Amino acid sequence: MSIFCAFWGLFLVRDPERMTLEDKTAYEKMFDSVTPVGPEQLPLSKMNMAGVGKAMLQKMMEDTETPTLTKFLNGAIKKGVKFYGCKMSVEVMGFKEEEFIEGFTIITAQDYMRDALNSNIQLFI
Questions:
Q1: What InterPro entries does the record point to (predicted)?
Q2: Secondary structure element (H or E) that encloses residue 29, with its range
Q3: Domains of the chain and CATH, by start
Q4: What is Dmax (Cα atoms) for the chain?
Q5: Stretch 35-50: mean pLDDT, rounded?
Q6: What is the pTM (predicted TM-score) of this model?
Q7: What is the per-residue pLDDT for 46?
Q8: What is the pLDDT of residue 105?
Q9: Residues 6+ apart with CB under 8 A from 10
Q10: Among 8, 16, 64, 116, which is disulfide-ready with 122 (CB 3.0 to 4.6 Å)?
């Protein structure tokens, strides 16, 4: 199984411990300062409700002993799920290859489509 992340999906696979402002433009630094740091800081889209929705969901997950997003991600990697990132998205957003989780590969959309055509399951985030 492989997962292809583009634009906002890239925040899922950025490692908060490896993020850097080194060699970034002023725009890229400003963008980094207003975007989520790693998967646990991601909002819930329309259901975020100024953070209340996310806090509620996290409590519900805790009550049902559901793993955090980071634990899900690490479990998927251990089970052999491959995570790919859109090269164009990474470049536009000013991210550096070393800012992502271990095992993350940056490829073109065309390369991912070749892989997806030969795969039983493909996910695009």
A1: DsrE2-like, DsrEFH-like
A2: helix 26-33
A3: 2-40+67-124 (3.40.1260.10)
A4: 43
A5: 84
A6: 0.82
A7: 78
A8: 96
A9: 85, 86, 89, 90, 93, 95, 100
A10: 116
